[in-house]
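fold-stage: in
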Amino acid sequence: MSIRDIMEAAPVIPVLVLDGSVDPIELAQVLVENGLPVIEVTLRTEEALPAIEEMSKVEGAIVGAGTVLNAVDLYEAVDYGARFIVSPGLTDGVVRAASDKRVPILPGVANAGDIMRGLDLGLDHFKFFPAEAAGGLEALKALAGPFGGVSFCPTGGIKEDTAEDWLAHPNVKCVGGSWILPSGETDLDHVGALARRAARLGKA
């Protein structure tokens, strides 16, 4: 799959910080069954890589690694089954490692300089991060002016009640949402309900 295919698979990519409190296979099944097949597991905990490996076994799940900071992180994540890479920023090293592994990458950008460096590297799909702290929707609208051919996945500070506004922008293909699995949440029925609502965003 291309990064465009991944971004267009669902309106929300759940951004997960896993600490072992929920079974990763059951979680992936709940997300896929409720319309969110693309799953980002952040490399912020020891449980992340084993979770990627387990979740990747779930039929229909498209599991990627987030918070990838360098080439070593990327290579390791791909070895554990990550099908796409998300990084908080854009560096030559991470982009080249993604090219080496032939894995789609969604690097973070926050300003025009970041986007121009990405374009120089042959990229035109980016994570706008941290979305709210970097100026919110108005900042993205301003960036979309000179970069009309660029697509974004805003992530960072976006909530269920604000996601629709972001998704209404033509350059936004999806948003990253940590609200799908709130910190400390272990009730997968609740997660499923959040996922169902998220899967319907932007389709009214």
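fold-stage: in (second)
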Amino acid sequence: MVSSGRRHALFAGLVFNEEDEAAEAVYIGDEPHYVILDAGFRRHVESERVDRQVLQWLQEQFFANQEMITDGILTMLGKDDLFTKAMIDASMQNMDQLIQHGLPEDARTWLGMFGFRIIVDIHGDVIRTDLPAQEAPDEF
């Protein structure tokens, strides 16, 4: 997780090009970038461009399935109280804060182990998001 003011690529290790090649996360100055491989050429795309597209999509998915997702998280946590439910709902409504605070390394590892992958074109536009046991719609 980010402890200083320096931002990180939220989905480092989870971003791939259309040829299934992993995008490296690098810094240009203080700005994190994903390096999208393009036939031997290394295209640098600001990570925030990709990260915001994914966060917006995740929020849309959450709101479309809010009750089911919240219930699943509560079950996973072994809690079923209004305070925890309110915290989960508030967290999902404030996903943009992840841009500043970062995503814990363990969370990225967990997502990768379960098949979460972000496929982008050479410009950093998200083409699709692969989820565990299903593929997300191609609409962004």
